[in-house]
Amino acid sequence: MSSNNFKQVFSFNVEYSPQYTVKKFISERTKLQVVQIFSKASPMVEGYFAVGTEITNDSGIPHTLEHLVFTGSKKYPYKSILDKGANLSMSSTNAWTATDQTVYTLSTAGWLGFKNVLPFYLDCLFNPTLTKEAFTTEVYHIDPETLQDKGVVYSEMEAIENQSWFINDLAYKRLTHPQGSGYRSETGGLTENLRSLTIEEIREYHAKNYHSGNVCLIITGNVPTDELLEIVSKVDDELPTVDNFKRSFIETDTNKFLQPRFDEPLVEKTVQFPELDVSQGELGFYWITCDYTDSLGDLLLTILLEYLTDGSLSVLTKKFVEIDHPLANDVGYQTEDFIKVVANVYFSGVPTKRLQELKTDVMKTLSEHKVDLVRINQVLENYKLSYLSKLERSGADVLSSSVITNFLYDKDFTGETLVNGYKTLVDFDNAAKLTSEEWTDLLQKWFVKNTPNVILSEPSAELYESSKLEKEERLNERKTNFTEEYKKELAQKLKLADDINNTPVPESLLNQFNINDPSSAIDFIQTTSVPSYESKINGPAANTEYIQKLVDLQSKSKLPFSIHLEQFDSHFVEINLMLSSEVIKDKSLLPLYLLFCDSFTMPMKNSEGEIISYEKTVSALKDDTLSYSIQRNVVSRFYPETIKFKVKCKAENYAKGVNWIKRAIYDAVYDEQRINVLLDNFLSSIIESHRSGYNMLICHIKDLSFTEKSMEKATNILSNEEYLSQLKDDIEDGKFAKNILPQLERFRKYIIDGLREAHVLVLGDIQHIGVDNFYKVWEDNFAVENPLGKFPELPNDTDYFTPLRQNLGKKCFILTTPGSDSSFLAVKANCSIDYYHPDYPILKLLLGYLQATEGPFWTSIRGLGLAYGAWAYNYVDIKDLQFIVYRAADLIKSYEAAEKIMQDLAEGTVEFDDNLLKGAIAIFLKGLAESNSSFLNTGYGKYVRTVGLMKDPEFTQNMIHELVKVEKSDLQRCIKTYMLPLFKQTTSSPFIACHPTKKDEFKDYMEKRGYEVEVRELQEDDDDDESCCSDSDCESENDL
């Protein structure tokens, strides 16, 4: 057949974000759909291959297929073909399964690598091998030694099945969707069903559902359309003709079941989740609302939900959360775009005895509320600006998500809803025309007259105990009934699966994925840096007239502190004022950061000295900004001993943004009632939050690693819950003015006095910000005495280490987490090399090799179903080398497997694989492109590399040349020097978080290895928090 199998369905330019053009094509013979989202705004090319996955049971077949598709195709029957090939092509693969879809992703640095992998990937999608051996390791098996349940999918689901959110979600599905509805099923698979699932059932489902008419390929980035269609057409040529088929959800019984419930009785269900602390539960409301194809109606619903739940001014937050004696510590919403939109409003941290009271009060509030037109128009405008900002930063992600939903639920393949909803902003314009009465009528229609289904979720200590017993009984039954002969059969089955799964991929196949000179295949985006104090300007706009004018203006200005610009085209600006926590001279005040970081939402004094309420303050903030926060970092996780004031706003509001930072510092009024509300909610959130074992592990490590002089310790709730409780007691005892307010004022005074050592990072377009105003607004707002006149020293994390952290080794630490069924491990060792040490590129390549997809950790740990994942990292800034096991089904075997990998490579028993080494270099390059996937990310990363980590904006580019020079002997030496010490008692410290039932097993094992083991148990009355800091709004700006 010819290369033009596909006819164009539509093409439109996104008028409000013109860098994006969306085109849709369809194969008339096979009905395969292709949507291209063309843009040059990122070096990344992304693929989203969507399959409608309707099922009416809890077998988990859609989820198992998500894993098994990656284990080879009939044409290429090698389990590692796809991921090893992707490594070589600067790509990575992934997938997710939701209630109604499985989406396979391909993320690549540049088009060259993407087009290498695409035909192999699609062959695996349409023609997977689906072998029994792959099922054994990827889905489910019984360990022949421990007799425990294993398998990658099984371990994943076991880890979440007893979490409150999972139980609530399953209860909602059961209550809202009747038997026969695809929306009722748990597509991930319940563990009891995974234990009896067969590969034959999975094959049957694939044959029925993975046909070309039920697949849409979405490709984003700088991709030549003709070349893309030519490649996909070759795949399409080999697919069978598809004529008549039933569209999932649209043309099945599921469609007729999903209807709003106008004027029907409220339906509720109380469910229980296992938890020792029974003081707090959760509450969820679910409404079936408008058709997906009603794009305006969908937008109006979202705006109403934002108005009801988002932020301190929202109706339900003001009424139930930010009050004395709150009925919840948080309220939020989410929508599921099915055939009809399902809206969910959820409350967490609800006192268990008041769940019914809150349910009644919420419905009463909704029924009586009249929408404030000024406020909802503000919500509408902020939502629109946030949407436009997301398009600038990650538009391909935003648009691709919309395309997937459109593929599933539009009335036909023409995509009319997508075109009408996304080509222009007309829906926002129409929404802005609504009156208060019309908004109120909508609120009444969808959230009052349309009756919700309600889930009341209660903690249960009895269920916690019974869930433990159930697992123990199953294990004991196997120990009794499984003969030695049967155990041998299990072992032989597992070994056979491992052998077949690890069949080597022919070199000739892997060679097809190689890219000559891979770094040249990436179109990196660049920003222009304009630092202060005569530092060098660099970037594509360095010699432009407007940048030169800015430089001239800087030389004539009296800068209060360093002000650095990262210049790129944008209609928005991000403003960051940062200073070291060292300015807080009295370290006993550091925990007050947890209250100080809410300064933006405190009452404030105006220029006349009047105190403006926090409601009016926040309302004014929302008029002028998109977002505002006080965080602990320079960028992402780097320099956590930094206090950062951050505002994002339209570029034209730059001066207002700077002024708001000034007002948060100088004009915030530490109001007793406001502080009391914040403390109530903070302390309330502690009870539920220690249900995350991994996050608790991180907190425990930081608690042991940092001294009281550090922000890491001061903002860690494992360290300071007692301190915060004392503040609460002081308020109740009438001591706020005497004890708390003076301390907060001292904290503020230290910040003000420390401003001379601040540094500012501005990211945006100086042409929209305005050259003349760029420095002047800082001079006008910050009259700093004796400015430093140079860039300040950034705080060094290692200065705050405890003696334990300075000299890791000999001790192991176990934290029991009753709310988490999984086990987590972090083994840490000291590693003192810096970025310019000759071993740094060698170690970087070695770590990439070890944790590559289908690399040593993958095949020996995840591939055998021992854990969901295992990784190793070197964090130069904190002189840290660590090995991590995440969601372990068998933590000890995972640990031993990693140790054996290191020993075999160090001794030469196992050779380094040439293709994996090439892949590790390619994946390093892909990581560079990914961390610079937007101009904003590029700007943040460039700043921290220039002023902090490497002191060189070109460092990562220079690294590329060093990586290709690395020899295998260098890798072997670095394994011995750096990696083996991770498994020696004298040089490493393991940190473990596990369920209490696993504690003794892990303690005995580590003691046998020579470690002195310390155990900390989180019990029923142990109010600890998963969140190590209060920076819940912190964006992951750049992982560098």
Notes on the protein architecture:
This protein is α+β, with helices and mostly antiparallel strands and 1040 residues long. The chain is built from 40 helices and 28 strands. The strands form 6 sheets. It has a 7-stranded mixed sheet, with helices on both faces. Strands 15-16-22-17-21-20 form a 6-stranded mixed sheet, sandwiched between helices. Strands 25-26-24-27-23-28 form a 6-stranded mixed sheet, with helices on both faces. The relative contact order is 0.11.
Structural features:
7-stranded mixed sheet, 40 helices, 1040 residues, 4 domains, Cytochrome Bc1 Complex, Chain A, domain 1, single chain, 18% strand
CATH superfamily of the largest domain: Metalloenzyme, LuxS/M16 peptidase-like
Strand content: 15-25%
- CATH topology heading of the largest domain: Cytochrome Bc1 Complex, Chain A, domain 1
- Helix-strand category: alpha+beta
Low-confidence stretches: 1020-1040
Computed over alpha carbons, the radius of gyration is 29 Å
Number of helices: 40
CA-based shape? globular
Separation, N- and C-terminal Cα atoms: 45 Å
The CATH class assignment of the largest domain is Alpha Beta
Proportion of residues in helical segments: 40-55%
Protein name: Zinc metalloprotease
Pfam family, one: Peptidase_M16
GO molecular function: metal ion binding
Organism: Hanseniaspora valbyensis NRRL Y-1626
In a few lines, what is going on in this structure?
The chain is of the alpha+beta class and 1040 residues long. The chain has 40 helices and 28 strands.
Describe the SSE topology.
Layout: E1 6-13, E2 21-27, E3 33-38, E4 44-52, H1 61-68, H2 81-88, E5 91-97, E6 101-109, H3 111-126, H4 132-138, E7 141-142, E8 149-150, H5 152-160, H6 164-176, H7 191-194, H8 199-209, E9 215-221, H9 225-237, H10 253-257, E10 267-274, E11 280-291, H11 295-309, H12 315-321, E12 330-337, E13 340-351, H13 355-368, H14 373-409, H15 416-422, H16 426-431, H17 436-449, E14 453-460, H18 461-481, H19 484-501, H20 507-510, E15 528-530, H21 545-556, E16 562-567, E17 572-580, H22 593-596, E18 604-605, E19 611-612, H23 614-624, E20 627-631, E21 642-650, H24 654-666, H25 672-689, H26 693-705, H27 711-714, H28 717-732, H29 736-753, E22 759-764, H30 766-769, H31 776-781, H32 803-806, E23 811-816, E24 823-830, H33 840-850, H34 856-862, E25 867-875, E26 880-888, H35 891-907, H36 914-931, H37 935-949, H38 955-963, H39 968-979, E27 989-994, H40 999-1008, E28 1012-1017
Parallel strand pairs: 3-9, 10-14, 16-22, 23-27, 23-28
Antiparallel strand pairs: 1-2, 2-3, 4-6, 4-9, 5-6, 7-8, 11-13, 11-14, 12-13, 15-16, 17-21, 17-22, 18-19, 20-21, 24-26, 24-27, 25-26
Helix pairs in contact: 1-8, 2-3, 2-36, 3-9, 4-19, 11-14, 25-28, 33-36, 33-39, 34-35, 35-39
Domain Peptidase M16 C-terminal: 196-369
Pfam families: Peptidase_M16 (PF00675), Peptidase_M16_C (PF05193)
Biased composition (Acidic residues): 1019-1040
